[in-house]
Amino acid sequence: MRLAFWNNCHLCANELIYMKWRNDSVGRFYSSNESTVVYFDSHSGDTHLISDFAAYLMQQLGDQSLTTEELVNKISPSIDLGDSADLEEAVSGVLGELVALDILRCE
Amino acid sequence: MPLRVGPYIYNVQSNVPAVAAGLEVLYADFQLAQPSDFVDFNVAILRGGLSHRMRGEAEFIFDGKSPFDTIPTGQAYAFLEWGMNWCVSLHTNEYLKLHAAAVAMGDSAIIMPGIPGAGKSTLCAALGLSGWRVLSDEHAMIPPNTAEIVPLCRPVSLKNESIEVIRAFSSSAVFGPVSKKTHKGVVAHLKADLQPDSHKMENVKATAMIFPRYAKDETQQFTQRRRTDSFILAAYHAFNYSLLSEVGFEAMRTLIDNVDCYDLVYHDLNWAVARVNDLPGLQVAS
Amino acid sequence: MSFSLQELLLNPHGIANLDNNQINQLLSQARSSGLLASLAIELQLTGVYSQLPAAITRHFQSALIIHEKQKRDLVFDSEKVKLALETIGEKLVLLKGAAYILAGLPVGRGRLITDIDIIVPHRRIDAAEKILNASGWESSFVNTYNDRYYRQWGHEIPPLINKKRGTTLDLHHNILPPTAGPNVDASLLFENLLEIKPGIFTLSLQDMVIHSATHLFHEGEFHHGLRDLWDLDRMLRDFPDRDPMFWNGLVARARELDLLVSLFHGLSYAQQIFGTPLPERIIEEAGSWARSLRKPLMDFLFLRAFRPDHPQCTLPYTGMALNLLYVRSHFLRMPLYLLVPHLVRKAWMRRFNDEVSSVEHGGTGKI
């Protein structure tokens, strides 16, 4: 059980930008209009408390395999973060965290 | 002696006099099963051969084996109760089992998960002595896809200072044998089946989940907490959440969606009981 | 009427004739022998399970849930271990329970495991340990005596535990310790591997049987003696259908691995306890061996070990027989001069550890 916060990233965002992200098995979410969401990873059997932003990204990713850029293009119409470079950094930060938790794979 | 304990039947055997005396006090109002009924768990506290007797030791036996080391006879009663918990903790998986106390008032129940030492058993005992029905002080058992609790009423285990705290809280508290110098210190069990419906088998609907924490030097607080991290915390204090996989996740989802979650930081037991009595929607007998 | 767990595993319909008290004893014996989920599967396969009352099936169900969870964790963990070993150019070779389950063999149905056993070539053991450490599987032994003992005399390194996952990995370089009588050339085992999933392997069918028999007869603790023999029976009934040449090569292969005696022990006791069908030719070969002088003593010892690990099933002298087997298995594994100090040390340490680790309940906390 670990917490994933997008501002707590250990991986270099630039390195991750050209990689493709994928989710081996879409798990189950529990949300209750709070800033965190419970995620059950049906691949590992682990349960995580993740940020609602991380959950949103995972739902957008679904079972597709996308690069950070593709994912950012997909979500940017519905997210207003001003500078799209910031958004890209935030997104790859969160995705890097999710990879560290074995929730996502990057290929 | 085949005892009915909630949905299970235990066959309890002992040749240690203190254990027999404890059972007589604490299990006097339990229902006995029929000899032909299917027994779920055979447990025994036995003093075996000469070497046991000379060293004043006994063994807890389950499935014909001793899962623990031998124990001093003076701690035998506490080990019987722990052993009976252990059967449910390890060998049943038809329910989501939270490591939590559960009490009921009328037809609504509250669940109190807590790490050991957080004061869940003390609060459970105090509520039990204040008109609440004790459903369990160790296992809150939730049938998947319900927000209900399966009653599993047994004596409440109290440790160290909390024994005196409860004696002071109510002069009518009835205790079984006191086990000294266990790995958890002094342990005594409180008779907890004090309500007319204590041994009723029907499930009770859960309406609240309270995370109690005894804190001597902190300001007492009763505050609502978020559902998602209550989910995680309750799962963390579950015996088999992870084992049940998707079933566990869905069971917890249904439960958490149907209860309000609170943090309770307390040092005054009367204050804590009053906060629980004040929960919305309860019909507290005065 | 009396019953036995062995008979009910073979003929689950017999459960219909048992009263509640006997079913309670049956569950108790099966649970303590590690065969509760296996028995549940046999009951399901014969259709008896659905006729049992819920008060009874919930106990079987509980064991099946544990089995299912272990299976799921195994799929995930073996993938991780495979990726780790790939980085040093080694393939993942599973042994015993983990192999049976992941290969989807009938012997894996309901099989409970306590750890994942894997094997790498001896010269690669250090590299494998390092890369597994780096992937989160850490050595659990801070106790230096045990650590030294394992590394110096063992055929495996101390268990590697993944704290994040709570699962244990046993990394072997051979199927018997170098000090054991037979001198197994482990490199032979890597010649006939079966690929069960991309990049994940087991020993060949014959080697699996030989290993199981070897493990059974060189094992110190017989709590799972009946379970291990049940494994052998399941394999011997199933493998000839998968490979028509299965029996042909078996004896020759065991001879090649210097494990013929263990194989014959295994076949002979599987037949005695579970009526495992063996070809005429094998019976003859094993029979001529069994007529040797050692058989009566071995029967005395092993027929006691292959009963459910439960006091209802003890024959006179079972305690003594199990102790002798413990000594025997150590004798088979190591030269005599090592034997006495190790047993003394083990007995002392076990006592000491028990006192430290008496637990109130198991398995809380992990999500």
Topology overview:
The complex is a heterotrimer of chains A (107), B (286) and C (367).
Chain A: E1 3-4, H1 13-16, E2 20-22, E3 28-30, E4 36-40, E5 47-51, H2 52-61, E6 65-67, H3 68-75, H4 84-100, E7 105-106
Parallel strand pairs in A: 1-5
Antiparallel strand pairs in A: 2-6, 2-7, 3-4, 4-5
Helix pairs in contact in A: 3-4
Chain B: E1 2-5, E2 8-14, H1 17-26, E3 41-46, H2 50-55, E4 57-62, E5 71-72, H3 76-91, E6 96-105, E7 108-113, H4 120-128, E8 133-136, E9 139-142, E10 148-149, E11 156-159, H5 161-169, E12 179-182, E13 185-190, E14 204-214, E15 221-224, H6 227-236, H7 245-258, E16 260-266, H8 269-277
Parallel strand pairs in B: 2-3, 7-14, 14-16
Antiparallel strand pairs in B: 1-2, 3-4, 4-5, 6-7, 6-8, 6-9, 10-14, 11-13, 12-13, 15-16
Chain C: H1 5-10, H2 20-32, H3 36-45, H4 54-86, E1 92-95, H5 96-102, E2 116-119, H6 125-134, E3 137-139, H7 144-153, E4 160-162, E5 167-172, E6 194-197, E7 200-202, H8 205-217, H9 225-242, H10 246-256, H11 260-274, H12 280-290, H13 295-305, H14 318-333, H15 336-356
Parallel strand pairs in C: 1-7, 2-5
Antiparallel strand pairs in C: 1-2, 3-4, 4-5, 6-7
Helix pairs in contact in C: 3-4, 8-9, 8-10, 8-11, 9-11, 11-12, 13-14
